[in-house]
Amino acid sequence: MHPTNNRIADLVPEIRSWRRWLHQHPEMLFDLPKTSSYIAERLKEIGVDALHENVGRSGLVAVIKGTGDGPTIALRADMDGLPIHEPSQADYASKTPGAMHACGHDGHSAMLLGAAKVLTETRNFSGTAVLIFQPAEEGGVGAKAMIDDGVLDTFGVSEVYGMHNMPSMPVGQFGLCAGPILAATDFFYIDIEGKGGHASQPHLCADPLAAVNVIYNAFQTIITRNANPIRNGLISITSIQAGEANNVIPQTAHMKGTARNLYEDTRDIIERRMREIVDGVSQTHGVRAKLTYDRLCPVTINHEVEADYAADAAERVVGAENVDRHQPARLGGEDFAYMLRERPGAIIFVGNGDSAGLHHPDYDFNDDALPYGVEYWARIVEERLPIRT
Ligand SMILES: [Zn+2]
Ligand SMILES: [Zn+2]
Which of 5, 76, 206, 362 is deepest in the core (most CB within 10 A)? Predict the structure, then answer.
């Protein structure tokens, strides 16, 4: 057994206590005063060589130097929670009504803190490890904010690695693929202004709900009829709001949703067809319908060579039989995509066991996964920044 294994096992109770503190204090997007100061305090206790705060607004960057010169690689975790109420009765359940860590970013931050502790103690590498704690992964593209603030250029980062927990994958397993692994994630909004009136006089109105109905159905034909069937994606309309009363045709209606796909050309087709449909419905239904299409996050594309490095490091932790190098891509989104556009690297999934799914109120990060994630981080640094003798 590698000596780090025993050390990490010894550290797990402390890392778990960090994870649970973070779980109790979920904060959202860039607004992370408690979270980032708690993580900064732990990094100071650990004794990293340098700590930079307020990078990309509320992000943190810790620098750990190895025992010799060499390149710099970055490891990235995210810190933010979600606007979901947590029903859990656990003693470490969220103390903030309407907010919870339902995506496991508490676990991601705790594992990277654990890696900071191990790497600072062992320094069994030659070069520099840059640990990135990022805000606003959940719809705020905090990764881009940190890049814009110079996180990759300032610290001379040559490769970037990310990790996300994965429910339904057993604890102690890792998975990834080379190439597209997570989807381009776009949000769209449709605001429809019709002409309201008495429900008994539809002929004197322009019913925005009739327009909603046509748009809802026509959008699904983008996926089935316009996008290449083996390169398509999904469109989910997740919110429709209009009207109050049984006897009133409403004046306005509002729709929201998300479009996801693994190919940028498909993304272009989806946006173009949405515009054509919404404009067409405006003309044919006598309403004013406006589409706002917000390209949040590009396709997350693992680089071929670095995906292999990541899988090799995971194999050192759990053995080849527990690393799936050819996982199917998923239609979740990750703003880590922006970092992989700037530098070679890869994101890997770590098994979260039989938990509820990500973003579900019953979800919880599985503390049993902590040592695997921490050791993966230590391994990837040691493998990519070997001490040459
Ligand atoms: Zn999430
Ligand atoms: Zn997440």
Answer: 76
Is residue 389 a part of any domain in this protein? no
For residues 122 and 102, the answer to whether their CB atoms sit within 8 Å is no
Ligand 2 centre and the CA of 211: distance in Å? 35
CA of 10 to the centre of ligand 2 (A): 27
Residues 148 and 44 in one domain: yes
d(CA 260, CA 282): 25
Q: Which tokens sit at 73?
A: 């690689």
| Strands in the chain per DSSP E | 50-55, 59-65, 68-78, 126-134, 157-166, 174-175, 179-182, 184-193, 197-198, 233-242, 248-249, 252-261, 288-297, 300-302, 323-324, 345-351
Ligand 2 centre to CA of 137 (Å) is 7
Ligand nearest to the CA of 352: 2
Do 237 and 143 share a structural domain? no
Residue 272's pLDDT band (cuts 50, 70, 90): very high
Do 160 and 32 share a structural domain? yes
Give me the pLDDT at residue 1, please: 43
How many domains does the chain divide into? 2
Q: What is the mean pLDDT of the chain?
A: 96
Average pLDDT (53-74) is 97
Beta-carbon contacts of residue 195 (< 8 Å; ≥ 6 apart): 204, 205, 206, 251, 286, 287
Are 349 and 250 in a shared domain?
A: no
Q: What distance in angstroms lies between residue 334's CA and the mean position of ligand 1's atoms?
A: 8
Distance 77 CA to ligand 1 centre (A): 12
Distance 194 CA to ligand 2 centre (A): 38
Domain extent at residue 241? 184-297
pTM equals: 0.92
